Predict the structure of Leucyl aminopeptidase yscIV.
Amino acid sequence: MGKRDASTAANYNVWRNDHTTASLKIDFDAQVLRGHLVQDFSRQPNTDGEDASEIILDTSFVDVKAVSVDGKAVPFEVKPRTGPLGEPLHIKLPAAAASAAVGTSVRVRIDVSTTAACTALQWLTPAQTSNKTAPFMFSQAQAIHARSLFPCQDTPDVKSTYSFRIASPHPVVASGLTVTDATAQQVAEDDDILESVGTKDTLYVFEQKVPIPSYLFALASGDIATASIGDRSIVATSPDQLKACQWELEQDMPKYLDVIEKLVFPYAWGEYNVLVLPPSFPYGGMENPIFTFATPTIISGDRQNVDVIAHELSHSWSGNLVTSGSWEHYWLNEGWTMYLERRIIAAIHGDAYFDFSAVIGWKALEDAIEGFGATHDYTKLLIKHDGIDPDDAFSTVPYEKGFHMVYYLERLVGRANFDKFIPYYFKKWSGKSLDSYEFRDTFLEFFDKPEFADLKDVVAGIDWEGRFHTPGLPPKPKFDTTLIDVCYKLAEQWKSKDFVPSPKDVEGWVANQKIVFLGEIQGFADPITVEQSEKMGAAYGLVDTQNVEVKSAYYVVALRAQDKSTYQGTADLLGTVGRMKFVRPLYRALNKVDRPLALATFEKNRDFYHPICKAMVEKDLGPDANRK
Ligand code: BES
Ligand code: ZN
């Protein structure tokens, strides 16, 4: 198999990683991970003429101390950093390995430490945690930050099983299943990871027996307590947040699993757990296997933001079992996941909610495309990643344009037929990575069956190339707007400057309806006035809400109205939430109306933010923002 991922320097077409043992000590004092990786690589077929005398791995800001192959030290070199791919590590293989036959395996041990420049980890002091008792750390490897943890074939095109042996003075969770005490004890005796570490450490052992790409490697450690949220699920979080997290999730978690297992096929990973992180977690959720990592902003006390969990759970099939082979084809992960998420929500709350969520997504897609410009490469379904940092190309486009690719195919063949295709597709590619063309071929192959003879013409008429490569908005389907019309209607009334609002206007609304309403107001050509903004905030309870989705959407409206009464509230929110979905739009909006306050707020909170978030906001705020 050739090399199709532009975001890796690894020669994975020649040598391929099948198993990884990560023996790492979490050093909270030095704020580094250190230890060793033992990786097995097998010689790949059909690579005549390729140089097999070295294994090239991705690294970024790691300190490689020693490398050995099959027990013997070998020469290695970390090449200089040239672009977003980092600093490739070249490992010289002994002559015998270099000329080994296809299928031969070599075992590489790398002794390594992370550095202060690591982009995949955030370290929190006890003072930065909610109950202040212990430090906390967590990793976030997607898209190409695993290489900042340890040298690896950092590409979604390579999948490896993993053993984790993690030494820490505090409880650890990881993207593997916990191994029983007796086995863990044995491992501790066999591994030298504990030799050099303090007696306060415990060795936590996990196994991931389903092959996973590097971006799903995950760890977190700190004062973590757990509670049940279903027969296969626990929630883990700081002890003082545990009850609230359990309440938020326990109602929907079993239902989500039930619905999606019927839609696709039984859950393959054993447990599905959720780790609720400190507020600086930069995403809504991250689908790390066994433990989804989630922002605490989903704990809003009203169970109105838990659809994030339906999304991350869906990744257990789309993304984690069946993986896009490169970031160019990322829609296969996120577009499919949006589709499955919406199917779950519809099964639980009713079909109108499928369309409701899709309309919210459509608006986000319109905004993203307007932001990039309708002909920009990043508005295509397939996004070339040569020379590009995936974090820069990241947007709602693969999510929502990807959703529309899947939803278009569903409507074309009809839901009943498409529902037969879903398990077929996920079974066929389970444990593998694929690209958009392989997806196309799978779809065509399935609908070529005699039972679908009457669909022959419609299927033959699909303009795959157009769908894959045309920039801008895809064709817009007709949505059921039952839940949305009231939001549009209310927004329309606000066009009249003397509209008098009342709490009754939004009585009985779910949070997403307020978000649709606020999204409409954000889009007004003529912004609302300061007085209108104040009245809106008061009448609809938009400032006092615990729901950060609603609150931040209101602040964007209020800032656009230059409602000074909300500037400080915005700055305060920016000091308590680090989820980029909220942080980036709020900084951009604040920057437009009060740049000194935006810069001062960023300066004050820069150590609170995750390294990725910090880098993104620095880019968004431009000159003066990156003084450190
Ligand atoms: N895999 C993503 C998060 C991600 C994307 C991390 C790119 C790093 C790089 C995750 O599944 C996701 O999409 N989360 C969303 C929530 C969802 C409900 C759309 C988020 O973080 O907002
Ligand atoms: Zn996702």
In short: The chain has three domains: 15-222, 322-469, 485-621.
